[in-house]
TrEMBL record:
Any Gene Ontology biological process: regulation of DNA-templated transcription
Keyword Translocase: no
Name of the featured protein: Two-component system response regulator
Single GO MF descriptor: DNA binding
InterPro entries registered for this protein in UniProt: CheY-like_superfamily (IPR011006), NreC/VraR/RcsB-like_REC (IPR058245), Sig_transdc_resp-reg_C-effctor (IPR016032), Sig_transdc_resp-reg_receiver (IPR001789), Tscrpt_reg_LuxR_C (IPR000792), WalR-like (IPR039420)
């Protein structure tokens, strides 16, 4: 069961999404919040698997709320940030805050539900209408480390190869074609990479690769 917190200052949107989630056997809407401060408080008390936060909310916006949720001790909630605006700055701030996804509200309800499933299992995603250059631009703005960290030695040569392809913003399907392996095999490699490097999701694997000089800026 995927436990979800919905945070949006529009009650109609929250009601609509709750109605959609109620039709899904693997979801439970455990809470709703009408502003950012309430979202942070409910995330701390309810500890949902996924929190869906609108960017524009009163008292505390969704990006600041994301930062607060992600920085809380012991937090294991995944955050999806929603907006009606395709803004580079919003994406950068969401990624920096530790969000697992940035999505436009124009998504069909079933696509948003699918995104929640993706976030709950530990992956990250950006709305397909927001181009992959955003991840690359965000990552290349980071000053690389002086030397490779010791934990990179834990990766096999194939895992390191997969990490480089993830850093190129390739999907699992694209990596599978490139390496002539099955998509499930790629998923296994990605999961092991994240575990070995202590990373939350593939977006932050991209950041890690750029920060540690695995991909040229």
């Amino acid at each position: 069961m995927i436990r979800v917190l919905l945070a949006d200052d529009h009650a109609m949107f929250r009601s609509g999404m709750r109605a959609v989630l109620d039709t899904q056997a693997d979801f439970e809407c455990v809470g709703e919040a009408a502003d950012g401060r309430e979202a942070v408080a409910q995330a701390a008390s309810l500890r949902p698997d996924v929190a869906v936060l609108d960017v524009r909310m009163p008292k505390l916006d969704g990006l600041a709320a994301t930062e607060a949720i992600m920085s809380a001790p012991g937090n294991d909630t995944r955050v999806l940030v929603l907006t009606t605006y395709d803004s580079d700055e919003y994406v950068y701030r969401a990624l920096r805050a530790g969000a697992s996804g940035f999505l436009l509200k124009s998504l069909a309800p079933e696509e948003l539900v699918s995104a929640m499933r993706v976030a709950a299992r530990g992956d990250a995603l950006i709305d397909p209408t927001v181009t992959r250059r955003l991840v690359s631009t965000f990552a290349t703005s980071i000053e690389p480390a002086a030397a490779e960290p010791a934990e990179l030695e834990r990766l096999t040569s194939r895992e390191r190869e997969v990490l480089l392809l993830v850093a190129d913003a390739s999907s699992n399907a694209e990596i599978a074609v490139r390496l002539h392996v099955g998509e499930e095999t790629v998923k296994t490699h990605v999961s092991r990479i994240l575990a070995k490097l202590g990373l939350r999701d593939r977006v932050h694997a991209v950041v890690y690769a750029y920060r540690n000089g695995l991909v040229g800026n």
